[in-house]
Design a protein that fits this description.
Blueprint: E1 3-7, E2 10-15, H1 16-20, H2 25-31, E3 39-43, E4 46-50, E5 55-58, H3 68-73, E6 77-78, H4 82-91, E7 100-102, H5 108-111, E8 115-116, E9 121-122, E10 128-132, H6 133-140, H7 152-164, E11 168-171, E12 175-181, E13 184-191, E14 198-202, E15 206-208, H8 231-248, E16 251-253, E17 260-268, E18 271-279, E19 287-289
Parallel strand pairs: 5-7, 7-10, 10-11, 15-16
Antiparallel strand pairs: 1-4, 1-19, 2-3, 2-6, 4-5, 8-9, 12-13, 13-14, 16-17, 17-18
Length: about 290
């Protein structure tokens, strides 16, 4: 039986207007307060799944090597080597114990913890990296609009080295199987509005929303980020995903929500409704659901 954990290694800040797109500030500030620079605080949540033979991570956060100027601009707060510390202190796991790393997409706040040594070496030396091939191709040649979200100078060499060592499992198509461990299976579906071929891992219990629905406040279909490369497509993706999620009663994992790590929705003619929310406990680094 799988065990699921949501980990909170660090926080950062992004512009509130960019996070909520066309939604007027008087509306989104009712949901989440902005600081004097109009930034809102967001979690850099990742997920650990343990099966009988595997320790699986989904995403890696922002890392700790960007420097003071970057950390100040984005309000990054976290310990040194945040993933190493959390895994060791809470699960007695070393980096070499991570067998699989599922990468939702290659934006800097999701892939920053992939490497170390400023960072040119894979932090998880024995992990198989599960990455969508078409998304990787796009990340190396993004548009000028979203180029700032991809820090290829940090991830390209690491991923190419992993590929040469046979440690990259390329995902293909719109959906499929990521990995299996006996009867335990983790699948994926892709969305396209935020970035092409954004991977959403899912199984019989959960679905990882990544930046399609980054917080519980983004549940309404029109509440789409200004960062999205194709906001109209995001609304279509959300409707399609919500139909799947509601029908299967899956727990949605919110990667960036400070107060709630997950939730469940219902869907009717009036749209999606968040019917159950799972708050972050005082023990922020280790939240368990089975």
């Amino acid at each position: 039986m799988k065990k699921y954990f949501v980990l909170h290694p660090a926080v950062f800040k992004l512009d509130g207007g960019a996070m909520f797109g066309i939604i007027p500030k008087p509306l989104w500030t009712k949901a989440i307060a902005a600081d004097e620079l109009n930034r809102i605080q967001l979690s850099l949540r990742v997920m650990l799944i343990q099966t009988p033979h595997k320790n699986i991570l989904i995403d890696t956060g922002i890392g700790d090597y960007h420097g003071d100027k970057f950390d100040d601009r984005f309000g990054v707060v976290g310990d040194k080597n945040p993933l190493i510390s959390i895994l060791k202190e809470n699960f007695n796991l070393n980096p070499s114990d991570i067998t699989d790393l599922i990468i939702s997409h290659l934006h800097f706040d999701h892939i920053g913890g992939l490497g170390y040594d400023n960072p040119h070496k894979l932090l998880f030396p024995d992990a198989t990296l599960h990455l969508h091939r078409q998304h990787y191709d796009y990340a190396l040649n993004p548009t000028q609009r979203d180029a700032g979200s991809f820090h290829a100078q940090y991830f390209k060499d690491i991923l190419e080295a992993a590929r040469k060592n046979g440690k990259v499992h390329w995902l293909e198509g719109l959906d499929g199987v990521i990995l299996k461990d006996g009867e335990d299976v983790i699948n994926f579906k892709c969305s396209f509005g935020h970035t092409p071929y954004l991977v959403h891992a899912w199984d019989e219990k959960f679905i990882y929303m990544a930046d399609l629905v980054p917080t519980s406040h983004h549940i309404p279909i029109p509440w789409v980020m200004g960062y999205d490369i194709s906001p109209g497509q995001t609304t279509i993706d959300k409707q399609t995903f919500y139909e799947f999620i509601a029908a299967c009663e899956k727990t949605m994992i919110f990667e960036h929500d400070m107060k709630y790590w997950g939730g469940k929705i219902s869907l009717d003619k009036e749209g999606p409704k968040l019917v159950e929310k799972f708050p972050v406990s005082e023990e922020k680094y280790k939240q368990i659901f089975i």
